[in-house]
Specification:
The structure is a homodimer. Chain A has about 150 residues and is mostly helical. In chain A, about 50% of the residues lie in helices and about 5% in strands. The first copy, chain A, has helices at about 10-15, 20-30, 45-60, 65-70, 85-115, 130-135; strands at about 35, 40-45. In chain A, strands 1-2 form a two-stranded antiparallel sheet.
DNA sequence: CCTTGACCTAAAGTTAGGTTTAGAAATTAC
DNA sequence: GTAATTTCTAAACCTAACTTTAGGTCAAGG
């Protein structure tokens, strides 16, 4: 025996570079689902290394954990994902990324226009276009203009 | 009299679309400095509308409040900023933006490579290049790989 | 003059994405 | 068989960027 009882959380952490606490947190967020050994400890599959790798990459691309969970749900549940499976969901990532780049480039164009006209004053400036404001991907619960203001 | 005693915080909020609480918060962060009327209430200049507009735009571009304060410090303190002054600091914003777009495009190239090879596995993948990881601009105090892991 | 609405401060709450801590149980190593 | 590691859970803490709340003051209208 002991040919393959699964990876412990510590080993998975070392293989991925993530903190043990982060891996537990991802589980709480539904991004990964280990099983438990008789003693109640988490055990992971080899494929989970790749899964967490994907999570880390997707984060760099600016996806939130719920968004990543959504993308990961595209993987087959009944078997270990193949390279083709990973390619498929990586394409989705690429689409997200393209959209973000596109948004930033439009923002840049608007800024160039504003630098040109020197306006930078609210109602006139293209930078206040609601479409652009809506998708600001900043951090935290920033009251994004367009949502209800105070009172 | 009453020709111009300055704007109240409520008026400034309406003109910019910001919440009153946000404007006070920005003051605490050193982004804006109103004076006080005899009763102790905040009074703002017309130019502060533009100042807050700039703050909002810079936030869309992903700058943090400290970074924005830094950029704003390039404005003249002794007089009302001219359109030229605004143009000058807007150029800095443009540089920030260019850099962010550049990073994302490099990330995209890496992803394309990875989709091609189907690896997506830690040590081989270009997406794990420390250079790219280092500058992840995500939100919050994320323990970015490369910093000391747990213990 | 008095009421209503705007404003004040300080402190606590919120979200995302985690980390840290505390105390206990399971594993591994010798 | 026991000591040293790991792991477990639950709860508290952290940052950024704000909002909400509580309790009180200021200003404007009638």
């Amino acid at each position: 025996m002991a040919v393959s009882e699964g990876l412990t959380i510590g080993v998975l952490a070392r293989r991925t570079g993530l903190a043990v606490s982060a891996i537990r947190y991802y589980e709480a967020q539904g991004l990964i689902s280990p099983w438990r050994n008789p003693g109640g400890q988490r055990r992971y599959q080899r494929a989970d290394i790749r899964r967490l790798s994907f999570v880390m990459i997707a984060q760099q691309f600016g996806l939130t954990l719920p968004e990543i969970r959504e993308v990961l749900s595209g993987l087959p549940g009944n078997r270990t994902p193949t390279p083709q499976d990973w390619k498929a969901i990586s394409m989705q990532l690429r689409a997200h990324l393209d959209q973000r780049i596109d948004t930033l480039m439009r923002l840049r164009d608007n800024l160039d226009g504003c630098i040109g006209c020197g306006c930078l004053s609210l109602p006139k400036c293209a930078l206040y276009n609601p479409d652009d404001r809506a998708k600001s991907h900043g951090s935290g619960p920033r009251y994004l203009m367009g949502d209800a203001p105070e009172a």
